[in-house]
Target: Sodium:solute symporter
Amino acid sequence: MAVDYAVIVLYLAGMLAMGWWGMRRARSKSEFLVAGRRLGPAMYSGTMAAIVLGGASTIGGVGLGYTYGLSGAWMVFTIGLGLLALSVFFSARIARLKVYTVSEMLDLRYGGRAGVISGVVMWAYTLMLAVTSTLAYATIFDVLFDLNRTVAIILGGSIVVAYSTLGGMWSITLTDMVQFVVKTIGVLLLLLPIAVVKAGGFAEMKAKLPTSYFDPLGIGGETIFTYVLIYTFGMLIGQDIWQRVFTARSDRTAKWGGTVAGTYCLAYALAGAVIGTAAKVLYPKLGSPDDAFATIVKDELPVGVRGLVLAAALAAVMSTSSGALIACATVANNDIWSRLRGVVRPSGEEHDEVKGNRVFILLMGLAVIGTAIALNDVVEALTVAYNLLVGGLLVPILGGLLWKRGTVQGALASVTVGGLAVIGLMAGYGILADEPVYYGLLASLVAYVAVSLATRPTDAAVLAVWRARLQASPSDA
Model:
């Protein structure tokens, strides 16, 4: 394993070096939080794909393939569909807004103070998303170094916090680009063909496994619908995703670069399911489906290649974790702390706050590491995050983009009713039940429409500013 260890150590050292390099470029709030809004198509596509394809997409995607076969691709597939929908229909408009957070968008659209409440919901989502990625470190470092779970979380989390704190979005962009390349080589070009060959090829896989493993809908229609509701719609409104849209240098870059990233996600989804199916042939009685990825890597890959593929798994986890961390810190500082202090600047106004944002990334990073140590269940944490996001914020965000009659009172009612309904229903039905997001989303929609129609329309001057921002030229965005 010495060669594999060397590959991993070099990879981690490279992440820290890029954090140091990024620190020299991040000299303004715009540079630190959104990479100066100047990423080109290639870098934008790579970093967007990197952030949405995390540990759940890699380790979890292979695990679903191990359990359900090819239909296990649906979870990651719906993530790709969400990114495609965001890129084709909304990203150009979002990029023109020239804001830093989703809550700033809500205030700009509705002309009211929806920021703190929506900020709390978005903060809870990004925090739990960062926690789930951090929890995945324990699995990977356990395979690599046989480390204690707590030590593994602290080690992996500290590296992500370090390079994110140093250079902000520039460091994260550089590391994500490397992580994108490592994932592509490690998972798509190496692990996928090797796993299929080791399993005897598709003919042998079909001979040894039930026909349900090759049914594209084998995972179940209700499960697919839930994935669409949570992940596809979640991609449309998450702060971690929007903050990447804000980095595009033009609305054309945001649209077409995101389309490329979404298409890549679809290929990654199928690759994970095929790898998991091959693992089922090779190891039919694993204790947990989530062990499939680590087991096939450890037992079937040659020295050196094994280290690169494990580095790919680390890349997947770290890209999502760093993106969620900077999103969490941005929301905590801009949408909660600044508003509670009464320091709210007009949307789009520049102010040098690099030091303050750096402090918030460090504080949120410590909170993420501490929460990850205290929690055990990755799936439950991720479910809580997406239920809160979709149930509380989907309706007011999409309503603001699509329905001019929506009002600030309707948005506040929607966030409050939807969020509380999701929390109450999770307590009643259980965290992993489908009902919380179904009924929570319905309650949010009813509250938004009813209260908006019962209150005065949004001021014409506010809507005029909103339309002017949406129609800004790419050079202004």
About this structure: The chain has a mean pLDDT of 84. Residues 279 and 295 are 8 Å apart (CA to CA). Residues 149-198 form the longest helix (50 residues). The chain is about 80% helix and 0% strand.
